[in-house]
Every structure is written in C-alpha cells, then in structure tokens.
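Please review this one:
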Amino acid sequence: MPTTSLLIRGWRITRTVIHILIGITLAALALPVCGRRIRRVLMQWWCRRLLHCFNITLTTSGALPDKNTHRALFVGNHISWVDIHAINSVLPVRFVAKMEVKDWPVFGYLVRKSGTIFINRGRQRDAARVIQVASDALTQGDNLCVFPEGTTTEGLGVLPFKSSLIQAAIDTHATVIPVAIRYPLPDGSPNLAAAYAGDTTMAESMQAFLNMRKPTVHLHFCQPISASNMTRQSLAEQAQAEIASLLAMPPRPHG
C-alpha cells in the first residue's frame, strides 16, 4: 500500500496530538457536567475529527441508524481501535470493552470518561455484573456496542461470537444490530496493516495508520434483529453469520 511522505506524517502527528489534547480537555471538563445530548454531539464530533487527523475515509452502507435510534445493541467484528471511533462517528454509543482497554495510552483515559462499561474477562462472575449495567443503560435509552469475538483479528475471518453480553438485549427487549467492519484496500482486499491484533502495540498501530496514504474503514449496518423469543446463543449465531456473509467469509463454527 502506498505510504505517505515524512512531511505529511509529521503534519498528521501534529494535528493528532492537538486533537487528543482537545479530547482530554473535553473529557476532564465538559463531559462530566454536560447533558446526554451534548455529550453525544461532542463525542461524535471528536471521533469524526480523529478519523480526519489520520486521513481515514469512513464509508457506510445498509440500514444506517439515525439520531432517533435508541435502546439498540450493536454487535460487530473487531479489527482495530479505529472501529470504536468509526462507529461513534455514525452514532454515539457506549461500548462494552475488556478491562485492558483502560490501560491503552491516551485512549484509555478517553474511553473511561466516555461512559465505557468495562468487563474483566478473567473473572467469569464479572459477566453478570456487566449484563446488569448494560441492561440498565439500555433501559435508560442508551445505545451500546459490543465486540462479541472478545478480541481483535486481522479481518480475515469472523471468530465465534460469545453470547453472554447479548443477554442484556433479551432482558430489555432491545434490538440487536449487527455491524460488519472492514478495512479495504483499493482493490477490495483486506488491509492487513489496519489490524490492531496479535503482538502489535498501540503505538505501532497508530504509526501504521499515519504511514498509510488514504486508509478506508467501511461499516455495513444490518437490519435490526428483534431479541424477542430468541436465545442469546441464536442471536449470537445469527449476527455472526450475517457479518461473515457480508464480509464474504465463512463463519467459524461455534462450540
């Protein structure tokens, strides 16, 4: 993939640092005191600008949610830290993330301040607590997003979706909206350099995006699925199959 010049990378780094400092200021001073609507507007603006700082093009398709969408649980495959900002650029949501995200450089602080719900995947009992917190958030009208694969991948396949957190949608009669996420190259093949997976560090992943001339992230929003009369396992399997189909990948078997 074509890379950028040293001058362009320097300019991107400068504006990214400035934008992150703006985000830290907003997270510390504005988000704790502003109302829900203003908080969502600020989050959406900040995430859109962050994509712009990295020169990332966001494209969308499918049943796009709008500002009136509420009490929806978005479930998606997970490739990069950019996934979060891409989804928030379309519709601000609260994410359910693994506890390790708290320790991400810079972004860890920002996601803590943005209302992210953290789960300790090393403690089986923690799932029950998170399901209750997620259910409360959905009941209050929030939109949530989870990445049921439980980890990031290179985007070459879709791992089996863990179903436990989908229970929150069943308990609150929320809708489940699968989101297929991909980072295509100009020829349509997966951009492996976009993946924040394996032993890649946050710094290395950010540097990879800074080096790319014009990376693209594409979100396809599937039709909402009613959680009524469905088990969490069947919801997880249907969402995984729909996403894998859209990405032209066979879903990896559950179990």
In short: Helices lie at 6-30, 36-53, 82-90, 107-113, 126-139, 167-172, 202-211, 232-246.
